[in-house]
UniProtKB/TrEMBL annotation:
<dbReference type="InterPro" id="IPR049874">
    <property type="entry name" value="ROK_cs"/>
</dbReference>
<dbReference type="InterPro" id="IPR043129">
    <property type="entry name" value="ATPase_NBD"/>
</dbReference>
<dbReference type="GO" id="GO:0004340">
    <property type="term" value="F:glucokinase activity"/>
</dbReference>
<comment type="similarity">
    <text>Belongs to the ROK (NagC/XylR) family.</text>
</comment>
<keyword id="KW-0418">Kinase</keyword>
<protein>
    <submittedName>
        <fullName>Glucokinase</fullName>
        <ecNumber>2.7.1.2</ecNumber>
    </submittedName>
</protein>
<keyword id="KW-0808">Transferase</keyword>
<dbReference type="InterPro" id="IPR000600">
    <property type="entry name" value="ROK"/>
</dbReference>
<dbReference type="Pfam" id="PF00480">
    <property type="entry name" value="ROK"/>
</dbReference>
């Protein structure tokens, strides 16, 4: 998107993760006017985290020479589980000290009643891609975010699928293996995340190494490196047989999950983002990973959705969350007018 002169009104987007918080000042066209990153400081509790967030907002506003009086609304995104209408976290695994915290009202009150909305982080990132990212020309989107686990956001004609109980779009937990499925960190068996999430990738790799599989990863681990999705990706870039096999198996499973959603929602576009995309768009391994997903979809999907659904990588990267939740705040304001 070509940069233009900042367009009023302005919004604050807050993307809260288990380690860091990203804060952005975003204009009406989705442009980031200022950005600040700070620590969530989970061990110190929610008050410490909020103190960091408020300071980051102040710093970002100062960077673009604005004050909170110039801000029309605030958007906050956190990982689940959550009560979106109630504006509170329920029992988020990545934020254990924030359990049950009414974050929307707390931030709203801190800023004198400034309109504040609350959203799931994957939904927010999906909306960012839908608003100004890779799906800006689409009417409907399935957005997969690949990291330690697997998140998903679904947008249909500006509407985020939140569900009646704030669990809509939790598609990393769809079941792809009914019998003797792998155990997911959520406690469920046979889920997509249990087969294609970053944590699962590491577990599957360690099982193969323990079973005696040859791999350059053995040498890397003997040198003191930690087994991570990134290390497996690096081994794959060296054409390591085990690493490539594991990465392509993750892609196959994502193809199964994608087919399920295509047959449920029939979207214009399916996008993949997050840290575990194995180099992403424009890299040899990233392109092979995406192509393997497409091949699995081709084998399993009806021909019409397969031939007409765009399957690609997302564009906004790590900025999608705070841009998207600022966009959600903007959307709420438009609906209220």
């Amino acid at each position: 998107m070509k940069p233009t002169k900042p367009q009023e009104p302005y919004f604050v987007g807050i993307d809260i993760g288990g380690t860091n918080v990203k804060v952005g000042i975003v204009d009406d066209a989705g442009q980031t006017l200022a950005f600040c990153k700070t620590s969530t400081d989970v061990p110190s509790g929610v008050e410490a985290g909020l103190k960091n967030i408020y300071q980051a907002i102040d710093d970002a506003l100062a960077d673009c020479r604005l004050t909170m009086d110039d801000i029309k609304a605030i958007g906050i995104a956190t990982p689940g589980t959550m009560d979106i209408p109630g504006g509170k976290l329920v029992d988020p695994p990545n934020l254990p000290t924030w359990k049950g915290f009414p974050i929307r009202q707390t931030v709203c009150d801190h800023y004198g009643g400034k309109p504040t909305i609350y959203q799931n982080d994957a939904n927010a990132a999906a909306y960012g891609e839908y608003w100004i990212g890779g799906a800006r020309e689409a009417h409907s989107l399935v957005f997969w975010t690949l990291g330690t686990g697997i998140g998903c956001g679904i947008i249909i004609d500006e509407m985020i699928i939140e569900g009646r109980h704030s669990h809509g779009g939790e598609c990393g937990h769809i079941v792809i293996q009914m019998d003797d499925g792998r155990l997911c960190d959520s406690g469920q068996y046979g889920t997509l995340e249990a087969y294609a999430g970053g944590t699962s990738l590491v577990k599957r790799c360690q099982e193969q190494l323990d079973a005696g599989r040859e791999s350059v990863l053995n040498d890397m681990l003997q040198q003191g490196q930690e087994l991570t999705p990134l290390l497996i990706s690096e081994a794959g870039e060296q054409n390591d047989e085990l690493a490539t096999e594991l990465i392509m198996e993750s892609a196959r499973c994502l193809g199964v999950g994608t087919t399920n959603l295509m047959h449920t929602i029939d979207p214009d576009m399916v996008l993949f983002g997050g840290a575990v995309t194995f180099g992403g768009k424009g890299t040899a391994q990233g392109d092979r990973f995406l192509q393997r997903i497409r091949e699995e979809v081709q084998q399993r999907a009806f021909s019409v959705p397969y031939e007409n659904t765009i399957i690609d990588y997302a564009e906004l990267g790590a900025d999608a969350g705070y841009i998207g939740v600022a966009g959600c705040a903007r959307l709420a304001c438009l609906k209220a007018e």
